[in-house]
Design goal:
CATH topology: UDP-N-acetylmuramoyl-L-alanine:D-glutamate ligase
Structural class: alpha/beta
Largest sheet: 8 strands, mixed
Number of helices: 12
Radius of gyration: 19 Å
Helix content: 25-40%
Low-confidence stretches: none
CATH architecture: 3-Layer(aba) Sandwich
Shape: globular
CATH class: Alpha Beta
Strand order of the largest sheet: 4-1-9-10-11-12-13-14
Strand content: 15-25%
Distance between the termini: 46 Å
């Protein structure tokens, strides 16, 4: 495995995310089917990475997405601006009045507690971003002189929205490589996105092709099996036990199947309850395994933990840190992000650095 060359800071953005941004409606301590009020957040697997890099790590980030031009879309824009993410690459699509042709996605998510697991219910058919096609984004201008990126990130959620979104992802990856920009991809398997269009067989067909265009691959214990067909040995369907030797073997099998990959990283999560997880990570870089052992952490809202892991690891690489530090940064950022509500990070870099060093939760005042 080759090292990852990181472009210099003369480019306009440190990272660009390509993907859907949905309005998350959160019933708080209640349930989706019984609540009388929701808190509103923005979120999306690819966007969350760009947002975490901006808000926690101070990087210059942008999002390439599409939104229906109505008050819901403008609310999403306002939320993204609060997070500091550049919205200049958002495609605004005229709204037809009722959403027959184009709309914005809604994501109802309850956090879970104790033995009651978190629950998600997405309402995202016919969204503006699911209808983008090759040629809709000016990739040569985005990656080229006058703009430019140090990192490009997308993932399996965006690729699942429609046949054309997978083509747009591939188009962007080709442009990134032409301009020397590292490409990361988070597998992010979602059964709800694939089950009506061919299930895991279709997911593997699409993602195997995209992963061959990627430098850095993120996933978890389920993603590599569902999206690439690479099984981890010694686990049951609940992933109650995560054998470290099995993980290492799986990562090396993925590396052998996709020699283009320079880094493969997997979170390690054992959900004892919705409120208490064991959390860690393992990565393969330059044929070396980096393992951050699991430790039990308390969970307030688990959604976005994997995205925050990805943004923390990417930050470590952009900052020129050793790979061991980068993986520990990802684990710390993911753990801290799951202590607050919403998909996105509310964490500071100082808090991440304190967690990396093993700092306690003693009050800071």
């Amino acid at each position: 495995m080759d090292p990852i060359p990181i472009p210099d800071t003369n480019r306009r953005w440190d990272c660009l995310g390509l993907g859907e941004v949905m309005l998350r409606l959160d019933p708080g301590e209640s349930r989706i089917h019984t609540t009388r009020q929701f808190a509103a957040w923005e979120g999306g697997g690819e966007y969350n990475v760009a947002r975490g890099l901006r808000r926690c790590f101070g990087q210059r980030t942008a999002i390439a997405t599409a939104l229906a031009d109505n008050p819901v879309g403008r609310l999403l824009e306002d939320l993204m601006l609060q997070g500091g993410v550049d919205t200049s690459l958002v495609k605004w699509v005229p709204y037809d009045g009722v959403g027959r042709q184009v709309r914005n996605g809604l994501n109802f998510t309850e956090r879970g507690f104790g033995m009651r697991a978190a629950v998600g219910c997405s309402d995202r058919g016919h969204t503006a971003i699911s209808q983008v096609k090759p040629g809709d984004f000016a990739w040569e201008s985005i990656f080229g002189a006058g703009n430019g990126l140090r990192w490009f990130h997308t993932g399996g959620i965006f690729a699942a929205l429609s046949p054309s979104t997978a083509e747009v992802a591939a188009e962007a990856m080709h442009a990134a490589h032409r301009h020397g920009t590292p490409v990361s991809f988070d597998l992010n398997y979602r059964d709800s996105l694939w089950k009506s269009i061919g299930g895991k067989a279709k997911a593997q067909e699409v993602n195997r092709g995209l992963v061959r265009k990627v430098d850095v691959l993120f996933g978890n214990e389920e993603d590599f099996s569902a999206m690439l067909g690479v099984q981890i040995k010694g686990v049951d369907e609940d992933f109650a036990e995560l054998p470290i030797a099995g993980y290492e073997e799986m990562l090396r099998e993925v590396a052998a199947a996709y020699p283009n990959l320079k880094l493969i990283a997997s979170t390690l999560r054992t959900a004892h309850t919705a409120s208490r997880n064991a959390w860690g990570a393992m990565a393969l870089y330059q044929d070396k395994i980096v393992h951050v052992p699991q430790r039990d952490i308390d969970i307030f809202d688990r959604v976005g933990g994997g995205d925050s892991f990805a943004s923390g690891l990417i930050y470590g690489l952009l900052a020129g840190k050793p790979i061991e530090w980068a993986v520990r940064c990802g684990v710390a950022h993911g753990a801290l992000a799951m202590t607050t509500p919403g998909d996105t990070s509310m964490v500071t870099l100082a808090e991440v650095e304190r967690a990396i060093k093993g700092g306690s939760a003693r009050i800071a005042r």
